[in-house]
Automatic annotation (TrEMBL):
It comes from the Eukaryota. It comes from Aspergillus sclerotiicarbonarius (strain CBS 121057 / IBT 28362). The lineage of its organism: Eukaryota, Fungi, Dikarya, Ascomycota, Pezizomycotina. Keywords: Signal. This is Uncharacterized protein. Residues 1-19 form the signal peptide.
């Protein structure tokens, strides 16, 4: 009976099938705050006579670049002219969510046009490894100078990016057509796809604070839809759906994107714990 009650409590949640975000702007802001953290550590190390080498934001090193200047510096030169930033680009302390939303809507920004070697010196191959390397640089930099406010914003930007990546597993172009959704549909072709918002964390770098949410498959609602109004069938369907969700993906696209999400989760956990 408790399981049945859970099904209907969950099924009553709001459907937000057309709610997702583009990941790139959050990642760009994460890189920007890491650049500031790295620069602060390099400056402190120089004052204290400590060995430390800045490696983030090659063309902005030894400069106080604004967000716009930094983003231009890490883009492929062939696409810089097409960037259409707003006045928010003049900031050196941008609010993460509001600025990412602004970039997505107005800047004509495409993260595919980034140059990894301008983000970090000697970048590893693969975007997940690149993000991990940048996050690891935060750990080394904060050992030289804490930069607590900057680290908080970098961490929040990475959490928002993680949420967007999770959403993209389910939502593509406003439809429930992400790799995870397609893999689920292949496994359960008789189920009607639906999704909901889940809460990942809280962004308390702004006031009032914001819930960091993402779109995911709504297993409970789908279980009810496919039950024919039979409680036992709904419970059985839900167990099957949740069991599938707990297994490691084997589909190429789903597996690749889930591995990227997992890399973000690990970097977030390390930054939160302070461990390298």
């Amino acid at each position: 009976m408790e399981l049945i009650l859970l099904i209907f409590l969950l099924a009553a949640s709001i459907n937000v099938a057309h709610c997702s975000w583009v990941t790139g702007p959050f990642e760009a802001i994460f890189f920007y705050y890491t650049y500031q953290i790295d620069a602060a550590a390099a400056a402190r190390a120089a004052e204290d006579g400590i060995a430390y080498t800045a490696t983030i934001g090659a063309d902005c090193m030894n400069q106080d670049c604004t967000l716009e200047e930094f983003i231009r510096s890490i883009m492929n030169e062939d696409f810089v002219a097409s960037l259409t930033p707003t006045e928010l680009g003049e900031s050196t302390s941008p609010d993460v969510y509001a600025t990412a939303e602004n970039i997505d809507e107005y800047w004509n920004y495409n993260s595919r046009n980034l140059r990894a070697n301008k983000i970090i010196t000697n970048p590893p191959r693969g975007f997940a490894k690149l993000v991990t390397a940048v996050a690891n640089k935060i750990q080394r930099a904060r050992a030289v100078v804490p930069s607590a406010d900057l680290v908080d914003k970098a961490l929040v930007a990475l959490k928002w990016a993680q949420a967007a990546r999770l959403s993209e597993l389910v939502i593509q172009n406003g439809e429930i057509a992400g790799d995870k959704a397609l893999a689920f549909q292949e496994r359960f072709p008789w189920a009607t796809l639906d999704c909901k918002q889940r809460e990942l964390d809280i962004d308390d770098t702004v006031s009032p604070s914001l819930k960091i949410v993402y779109s995911d498959l709504d297993y409970a609602k789908m279980a009810v839809y496919t039950s024919g109004n039979d409680f036992a069938t709904a419970a059985e369907n839900l167990r099957g759906f949740l069991g599938w969700a707990e297994t490691s993906p084997t589909d190429g696209g789903y597996q690749m994107h889930q591995n990227l999400v997992t890399a973000y989760q690990r970097s977030v956990a390390r930054l939160q714990s302070g461990c390298s």
